């Protein structure tokens, strides 16, 4: 009978399961000597499990007290308040300030306490500084368009200018490396003191990317250049993507965009404008996300000179799919809702 019960138990390998098997045999009337004969565990272990079961009536191991915490719950709350008062304070600085409150703890302990409260160290997001006027304008804009549907946003052409630099300076690059390979050629991002920079103007809508033009060197980004760009790039895009259907044009408040001659020209062309566009609000413009995607793709090609950079930019621009463009346009409703929820502050985009 003992062999029949024990055979399936011999395959058990964890301490918890072994303990349960020993106590099960004990409950079935087997003596300690009988259980030892099964060789399911060392003799001392078997008798200790049986003894503990008789004393506590449970097979669970009593939780060890462990090392006492260096801080109380009240002191932990104090640490949290100190951190929230200065989000950029380091764990070493927090440890010093905490020590003044009577808690002698290391920077490592500080990090553990903050982690328990969900406070982890992360790189600060870079966003434009918002003035009171910016916040007010953002709220006005978002309230004005809060009821717009995906179909409404599908009629908008978004536009903007963007710079592209050589040697990966346009964005960040992550590499995987072994110890000692930090300066290996394949793990280094080359930089130069004065990298060539190319400025482009582009536009897109839910129907896909539109025209992209490169600003010639030594050309000022002024109202004359902008009017010519709209004439040569925007109008053909609207005709190609929307035909005779009325569409809406978006551009930000850059000086050359707000020039009287530009406003008059757009009116003469019967171009409807989205806005007024709030200042310092790239998070509301989906073309900013498109630029980021394009820059990453261009950087992967590792162009080595200005001509190659221009070639790669144009090639990667036309390779952007309509599905990606639609997803970015469809995010407008979420952007609007989030800015309203945050009372005009930055959204995640």
UniProtKB/TrEMBL annotation:
<protein>
    <recommendedName>
        <fullName>Transposase</fullName>
    </recommendedName>
</protein>
<feature type="domain" description="Tc1-like transposase DDE">
    <location>
        <begin position="156"/>
        <end position="309"/>
    </location>
</feature>
<dbReference type="Pfam" id="PF13358">
    <property type="entry name" value="DDE_3"/>
</dbReference>
<feature type="domain" description="Transposase Tc1-like">
    <location>
        <begin position="77"/>
        <end position="145"/>
    </location>
</feature>
<dbReference type="InterPro" id="IPR009057">
    <property type="entry name" value="Homeodomain-like_sf"/>
</dbReference>
<dbReference type="GO" id="GO:0006313">
    <property type="term" value="P:DNA transposition"/>
</dbReference>
<dbReference type="GO" id="GO:0003677">
    <property type="term" value="F:DNA binding"/>
</dbReference>
<dbReference type="InterPro" id="IPR038717">
    <property type="entry name" value="Tc1-like_DDE_dom"/>
</dbReference>
<dbReference type="Pfam" id="PF01498">
    <property type="entry name" value="HTH_Tnp_Tc3_2"/>
</dbReference>
<dbReference type="InterPro" id="IPR002492">
    <property type="entry name" value="Transposase_Tc1-like"/>
</dbReference>
<dbReference type="InterPro" id="IPR047655">
    <property type="entry name" value="Transpos_IS630-like"/>
</dbReference>
<dbReference type="InterPro" id="IPR052338">
    <property type="entry name" value="Transposase_5"/>
</dbReference>
<dbReference type="InterPro" id="IPR036397">
    <property type="entry name" value="RNaseH_sf"/>
</dbReference>
<dbReference type="GO" id="GO:0015074">
    <property type="term" value="P:DNA integration"/>
</dbReference>
